[in-house]
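for the writeup, i need someone to sanity check this before i put it in the appendix. the sequnce is what the collaborator sent (i think, or maybe the updated version? ugh). structure was predicted straight from it, no edits. if anything looks off just tell me and ill rerun, i have time this weekend
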Amino acid sequence: MKYKSLIESMTLEEKASLMSGANFWNTKAIERLNIPSIMLTDGPHGLRKQGGKADHLGLNKSLPATCFPTAATLANSWDRGLIYDVGQTIGREAASEKVSVLLGPGLNIKRNPLCGRNFEYFSEDPYLTGELASEMVKGIQSNGIAACPKHFAVNSQEHMRMTIDEVVDERSLRELYLEGFRRVVEKSKPKTIMTSYNRVNGTFANENNYLLQDILNGEWGFDGVVVTDWGGNNDRVAGLKAGNQLEMPSTNGITDKEIVQAVRNKELAEGVLDEAVDRLLELVYTTQLHDRDASHIDYEEHHNEAVDAAKRSIVLLKNDDNILPLARNNKVAIIGDFARNPRYQGAGSSLINPAKLSNAVDVLNQSGLSIVGHTKGFKRMGGADNGLLREAVTLAAQADTVLLFLGLDEGSEAEGIDRVNLSLRENQLDLLRSLTKVNSNIVVILAGGGAIEMPFVHDVKAIVHTYLSGQGSAEALASILLGEYNPSGKLSETFPIAYGDVSSAPYYPGKEATAEHIEGIFIGYRYFDTAQKPVLFPFGYGLSYTTFAYSDLAVDQYQASFTITNTGSVAGEEVAQLYIQKQNSSIFRAKRELKGFEKVFLEPAESKRVTIMLEEHDFAYFNPTAHRWVVEPGAYDIQIGSSIQSIHLNEEITLEGDSIPSDHTKENFPHYFSGQVHKVTAVEYKRLLGYEPPAPYWDPKQDLGLNDTIAQARYKNLLGKSIYHVVFFFKRFFDAVNKPLLANNVYFVLNMPFRQIDRFTGGKISRKQILKVLKWINR
């Protein structure tokens, strides 16, 4: 241990005290030993340091900071250098505010497009996720502070996230849900990792020995601090044994006493506590900022960086008749509430108070375009308004081109609650249908954190998806619309034609006790490509104002080299993507998988030679029988494309591989082998898991315990039903008065386990009182 002598000078109570926070955002100090407190605070696309009363879901305002595009947006840039720079700038602002640990990036895999927190996550693909998140971690930590990748692991839904059991087979766990974290830990050495709220295969992530001890610490060699999500501790002693050092926020000493008692009762070896304290002290002493002079922050310069990040991340999805860039002499109508009041970030713990914010109406009015006017067009939170509709139709009839701003409002996607569907609100679709009757030149500009169904795709000339582009979104969008910047974003997720086409749609979300990952490894493009299911827009897709040609592919086991040429008339950036496809595989697997990419800038007629390096792991799958990664012998295609559906170059190589058998064959798993996961039988799924899956629903006859929720109380007696309906009433009330953040906080309470009430209230509501209420409810 590095701090052995210091730890030996501590009392047992002092050691235990360091294992939980002093308050909502700070660790405890021990003044007599000169151990300082450090501050942790939210990211991940900007600093969220609250200046007043603290809360976890973004209800109370934070100090001004630069609001960068969210991870889902930045991922569309496919630009490692850009994401490093964004991380570095966010880390610089954090360090200037004496923040030692920035809680981000989020890198959970987008299992399903309805997940309410997908805007905080990079991709449906673990390779792309791991590469980009690694760069953000490196950028943040270049400032001498800690990044905190989250949420480890399998946080795939927001509904019942504090209690749900994510039931996932080992191969899917390794290849999808842990792979991004592996890349981050091994490539960028984060100083902290945050565990998720949920269970993973029956055990809470925070006390899961397999995840924390065997894999994170053992296989990957992580030597930093594991911190709970806020309120994410279940059994404090079990968590400490598994490798969780820091519980946040403060529990007012409640769990400290549990640790002391466990040591004295010989339930917990004091050496385990000492190792945890040693890790925490290493974090404290390597990130403490109290004696560092505050660096000057140029928020105007950082705003320009935010604009640049947004420009490189916005995706052009359609551009018929080259309607974009806009002709300067055309009369342009701006329609939509989002044009004046931009939707530029998500909601919840990542809610940033932007240091600067502009809107598209003002920016476009100053651009030199001939703007004939702007009208709101629709009510932001839904509902018909014929007056707004008539105004919009009248304005559209006066214009050559309509810029129609549509998107998802703040109540449609947020931390703590999943999306209801992939649709825009009906009043927005009604508006679009009405506008097409008076103007055929409509450019739809979308805002939102992910995939959206587009029944209008054939009715408009162009579609630009800004995602959630941060405080610089208006300037970035204007530069693309005017042709001052050539769009280069590519989708980091698949857009289905309809939600029912998604592989996990029949199984998502887990409603009560479990979330069954019946689709296995077949999520996102791995499903659509393998099952040959048509999509709206494929993974890796995005248009440019120029064209590119690929040629001269040369490959071996260790690298692929090829030439890209700009064959158009304007400069631009192309994202070249490398996919690997196993020929005649004996096991079920995705048709092809992303294993490399490079973003290349080219002037007109310019060519560049691109080399993408490969390693053995890129060809491997996880063999559950052997409990290790295995390379299947045989022929592999190395494919270079501009999206997963646009493969331009292909060369074959042969690998000797490992002669280790697998039972993941066509005979054992016929529906997985063909990718037809909507037809998987109960026998197949049980065979995939290796055990009988647990019951997916609560047993309403069982007594409620500390790990149950207020939501479950509705199945009990009058008292339980009353508590549930009172809480649910307030959620519906805040929804009705257009207060989505308040409604979301109430929903958070609804799904909170009873065990957290005494801890979140610092003992003001005692465990004894909670047990008494549970006893009454269970009568």
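The two ends are 51 Å apart (CA to CA). The chain is about 30% helix and 15% strand.
thx in advance!!
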